[in-house]
Records
---
Amino acid sequence: MAQPVIEAKGLGVKFAMNRRRKRSIREMFIHGTKRDPNKAASDFWALRNVSFEVAKGDCVGIVGKNGTGKSTLLKMIAGVLLPDEGTVTVRGKVAPLLELRAGFNDQLTGRENVHLVGSLHGMTPKMLEDRFEEIVDFAEIKPGFIDTPVRHYSSGMKVRLGFALISQLEHPIMLVDEVLAVGDKSFREKCYKAIEKMLENERTMVLVSHNEGDLKRFCNRGLYVKQGDLVLDSDITEALNAYNVDTKAEIAARKKKDGGKAA
Amino acid sequence: MASRALAVWQNRKVVGLLVRRDLKVKYQQSILGYAWSLLEPLAMASIYFFVFGVLFVPGEGSARSAPGGPDAPGGYALFLLSGLLPWLWMSGALTDACKALITHAKLITTMKVPREIFPLAIVQTKFVEYLLTWPILLVFVFVLGGQTGWSLLWLPLAIVLQFAITLGFTLLLSCINVLMRDVERVIRILTRVLMYSSPILYPLSMVLNSGLPDWFKLVYELNPLVGIFQLHHAVWYPSEAPGTLSLCTTIGGAFLMLLIGYLTFRRLESAVLKEL
């Protein structure tokens, strides 16, 4: 049995809540703890006791309400946020599609940015040279624009270029955070195709999305995160069902409350 | 610790890329480009030369304040440049250090790289800029007849020590500034203080021969920067070579600073990542 590609054990991360501002030195020395504006501050566990394993070739969808720690979880897998509790082990290189414009320097041209960010993600100059045409082509950037500073690009162009570049990475693990929502319909269709192609060669993917269609299309497993806890680890349909049941209950509760007010 | 150092080493290409990008951006945006790297220190040096070399020429005995008297090869101008150029490396790094992590927030929150490379890239960028100012120094050496010999060997030591201490400061400042933005302002003042409390514009002998109390002189000499800049001066003025005690405190101080910076960075890393 092969080792799981992603292994999370008892993950937990906390943020400080209610920390309005830093105390000034004067307050610290003169008033002691009396006037501490952060008195009400408490730690807030964005995620706690999250354990799961992802095997090679799996495509896992993470579902849950806004603010329940889905993106936080993804960031911890990507290694850009350190857990306060537990460990996460990732075996293999990660292609993070978390924020596609990341790393593009506004002053540099599209070409320079592709080379820079590509190399930052571990692509060799040779690979970049070979695929440059493909990247530009995929991003639908008109020939003249690739040598223009990125600050003159439209936001769509930046995101398209970012996706085109990162989708060329051959890393075995992909983390995708709702980026599929970008671009117009035809570009989105292209992204789907690209992702499907990537999934074909035994790659692992973790996807965070609110779009049921996307989730059902790609994922074979679902993790349902509810208020910082992992409540369900099953196949995607079941996770979505559980999520929908909860959502419906919430909407019903809200209606009831509104109805009560109106009456 | 060793594994982190290894991780940084494995990412040395990334550091190189960041350095090249920073330089590229810097030179691309201005018309004069590389010339600025020469003009800026030259302008600074002229100002200081005018104030301290022309206006404030003290009376007999300490004329022009270059070690070895007014007739020493190189004179005050060379003395000034040999201290000022490395100082610009350091002060530039300290100023940029505060922004090291903040400007790269997007990169840091999406890519897994050892976070240490961002401060490291800053120190290296400024180091490259320092190397680029060497032509000025060499011109002055030829024109003014500066002399060196075996004392040129002080230079690598000075650079290594300065690199270590600057990196220590940069690591420390870059992470603290994310949590407390006050640091940025403090640094502007602190760089001034550091500049005037190190023998850059004036020779060390002026402090040691002054009427200041002995404890003050001792404290002054304990500042590791004093040793570093004395080393830089010593390349052209062998009489400036620091003594054993000074050398020890400098080496010890530089690496202690590196250690403090590194440990603070590691400790605050998790909090910094949440804040970004």
---
Amino acid sequence: MTRDTDTHLVVIGNGMAGHRLVTTLLARKDRPARITVLGEEASHAYNRILLSPWLAGELGRDELALPAMVAEGVECRPGARVINIDRSSHTLTLESGERLHYNRLVIATGARPTLPEVAGIQLGNVGAFRTMEDGEWLRQQAPGSNAVVIGGGLLGLEAAEGLRKLGVHVTVLQRSDRLMNRQLDAVAAGWLEQTLTRRGITINTGAELARLDGDSNGNVRSLTLRDGRTLAADCVVVAAGITPNATLGRLAGLEVGRGICVDEHLATRDPAIFALGECAEVDGATIGLVEPIWQQVETLVDVLCHRTPAPYQALPSPTRLKVAGIDLYAFGPVEPSEGMETLTYADPEHGDYRRLLIDNDRIKGAVLYGDTRDGPELFRLATTDTALGKARALLIFGAHDAIQRLEEVA
Amino acid sequence: MGELSGQTDRGACHAQTTCPYCGVGCGVRATVSGESISAVEGDPVHPANQGRLCVKGSALHETLGHAGRVLAPRVDGQTVDWDTALDVLARRLHATQAAHGPGSVAAYLSGQLLTEDYYVANKLFKGFLGTPHVDTNSRLCMASAVAAYKRAFGADAVPCCYEDLERAELVVLVGSNLAWNHPVLYQRLKAAKTRNPLMRVVVIDPRVTDSCDIADLYLGIAPGSDARLFNGLLAFMARTNRLDRLYLERHAEGFEETLAAVLEDDTTIEAIAADCDIDAERLETFYYWFATQLHVVTLYSQGINQSSSGTDKCQAIINCHLAGGKLGLPGAGPFSITGQPNAMGGREVGGLANQLAAHMDYHTPGAIERVSTFWGAPSLPTEPGHKAVELFEAIERGEVRAVWIMATNPVVSLPDADRIKRILADCPLVIVSECMENAELLEVADIVLPATGWSEKDGTVTNSERCISRQRGLLPPPGQARHDWQIMTDLAGRLGFGSAFSYTHPAEIFDEHARLSGLDNDPARPDWRAFDISGLCGLDRAAYDALAPIQWPVNADHPQGAARLFEDGRFPTASGRARLLPVRPRLPAQTLSETHPLRLNTGRVRDQWHTMTRTARAARLMNHRDEPFIELNPFDADAAGIEEGRLIELAGEGGHYRGRARIKRGQRRGEVFVPMHWNGAFSGRAKANALITPLVDPISGQPESKHGAVGIQPLAHGWEATLLVAGDLSETVTPTEDCAYWTRIPMRHALRWQLAGTPDAGERDWMDWIARVLPGPVSQWSTDEARGRLRASGLAGNRIAWWLMVGPPAELPSLHWLDACFDPADGTPLEATTRRRLLAGAASGAADVGPIVCSCHQVGQYTITAAIRRGHRSVEALGAELACGTQCGSCQPELKALLEEESVHVEL
């Protein structure tokens, strides 16, 4: 098949979704001939997942860089912010005023941190941990200074651990009664809290932010909780959820819920425009993890190459967290619902914990803390809806033997 | 000579001795390294086993060691020195007799004693303490066979030898699971049958046992119908003109009355088959085979003897042999095989209540005077004493007020065992000579005397073919343990009989014993005695030490011993003829009732011995059957709502028995089987003899241990749990509170407990229980709450202290790997994955070998089935691949069964 030379594909967003889309397309002979990637950040594409180890000093900055997209007809433009989409003329307007024609458009603008609606949230030295810029900012925090991380989820804890390694005194504020409440059960969350506390991070659960107070320079100085406590803060990192960057879609008159609404082929109502990644909303759901983005890319690449795509389906995806030696792996619901059964294993001395939720002889959810090597196997058993039968008794001690037993039975 | 390929242990030497277990009496070659025995193997030159050894014998060296031994004398619970113990003992015995007469003192001996011990005991109690109440646990084993031999032949004399089994054309096993109880003899028979395809084997037993593996014909008769069967055989022989008229005429008496009595019953095949509850055609086949062959050995054991009409059953068998002249020639004879290693030695010295000494009874003319003079005994009793069951009844009545029990555990082995324990608890003076602390009897002992055990004892034993062998003292006695003969000699001195007991070495005792056997014993005279070892008089220590196995009689006529007796047709009866006696078949005395509708049978299992005090020390012997069990027919199981592996309870008149269900088609409907080994030291309520009523044979006094009447029901219980505790901590843990059932299972490095909670105990807070009962904190745990499962362990650094699983034992992995994790010598660090594997109970990826089938080579069932599925389709092929069944061979029937089961899969 000859290349569709007339087609100009524009991708807005040079994050992980956009980069993955383009690199995948480059491997395809039937890709659009011309591809332009517009990135808002000044830097080239980088692996956002590695921001944490970079902050923690485990990786050099260069190691975050994603391979450059060098190919005939491909142009990558960092620092190019799109301010408008004219769907009737298939034209984009950049902040610089430049206009750019597209045949097809992919919006992959990602998401931004959700800021709590409290006084002082706009003060200086209050930021997020989403971008390399954020990382640079955090790396400048002085050893011995006080940092407060708002949000005891995955991202917040990674930021907290990174800051701790820089010698900063870190306090984590978590609204829920436990850390990572969307992934971890009380035991695992408790162990995690214990471990982090032992390392020197102060964890405040059930803590809700009331307001931030600044100094004369307009920088944050302290923050106050709903229960009246006041904490000193030289910097505040907000990691309490994300909001899809759907503004461009809304401006262009596309259907927008939390994110830009797309169908199972990632298409908006405008057949020339697609949305991908954290900014997209499929079936009322937005995503915040990398695995479903990879799945979306697979679908969208086929669409863009005029192949019959496998429709994207929001599959459950596992959460992995590695905070300097603490491995966590979780998927599925955290609390057992009616009729669900629970298998647990705990070895506190070795920091080894796992809990499986079973429904109708099938794995529905899992939390693995410490040794997560069985996680993918368990996840596979869950997604393939495998009946456990006799393997159930062994499962908690090691997926390998259990699966072997399943195979023997078969 | 070329270079040695292997380094020899320079400190080690080999020694020949004799196995202390069953009546086969195998020779053992032990490797002695310093003060321990590092290995044992069959003695290739011993005539009994010719190099073979069964699984129990092969594990002998694993049962040794000082742990668990009685090491010092105790009086009223206080450890004392020997002098104190013997002084107290002498004083109390004297006081008892002074107040209540000579007959207030008794001895209860054992077929585990050596002949020399037995001799001294018999001499001391009868000759010098003047009490006739000397009996032995041999009463439980073969008293009926003895009584029958004495009635028929005029002597307690087994006419056959092991070789006869190999030379027979027909071998009838009746009431004998030879494969499990005399494995080496079974292997000899099996090998002979392979060599001689014309040889036939008939198994007569209510249960299908592993001995059926080589049977050409199996008769699953109704329990207790043996005499009817053999009476019918005699009638058949007469009817079909298969009698040896010449033999009867020349060498026997009583035939006509005997036959006449037999013919009073309906002797048609159909009638007998109906009474015995077997197929008529099979019955006729057996009759035809027996009647038409000359070289027939009928080998019988406890299945015949342990009956309220055991003596008559033996007689019914003997009658058939005499009527057919199938006796006194190679490959023929009625052969009683004994259970214990030295039952025969005990009888030789006369260590039973109805005997005096050296095959002389109280009523033997001139015997009392002869023995009195020989011993210089002041006050020999003149009448027989109480036989085992009667003896304990006499204790209960308070007539016997002091009893010395040596090397046996009657609170387990006698009928109505729980009552026996109560009787002994109430007896004013109970003296126990014992080597193992875990003997339940010690709980009721006033004076405990540490005795030597196998590997330390030095003397002789006589096996089932009259073969006298040396059991040699290879290791020094542990602690303060002494030989039984020494203890009695020391006591005799304190009682003022020193000059009659001046022995310093067993050789001196043996010499005296040999002299007494030949005293006034002239084979030419009509009152000759078959037991005569006068040819062994005068052995000095060196000659005694070097004594090679020899079959009695050993005298001027038979200087090299004799393989067979009565070859000339001359018997030591008054007439010189063997006696046929009319036998009226009697059913078991124990009757069934509405509340006790099932017939109970008892017996041994392959890898255990008696009350397990020794065999339970070898972990591998616990693998074959690890818990007390109840075998029952599938119909009975269904009717009672019992599935395989469920805990069930048997109720008898005298007590209860709790164990796990094994559902077997080889078990007759309406009948159950339980093993005789378990007792209070190993399980909460699993004493077979608690279910047995003390009904005895009127002639032999042997109890009807094979016939109980019981009711059956599922045992109501709550949770079930398995607990393993590290060996060195096991003494500190008592996990049996609120248990409806418990069993202790010694493993190599850990002690395993199988537990079941009482039904009303409800849910247990296990974490709380662990904190109270087990050492150290919980290190890891897992739960499956919906199913009520919990696993937990306690680790101390690199060592595992305990391991708990709450849940049905069917979910247990094979526990060998876990047991190895308890090895204190294993310094492998426990990494996270390994730790999790601890709760799984199996190494990651390591195949679970399944329940151990071959104890010798530790080959598990799963390994074997896998090999079968790979194409190994015979016992030999499996042996070549996995070595299973190649050592003692006793698992071969199970291998065959697996081959049959698996053939279904293979064909698919």
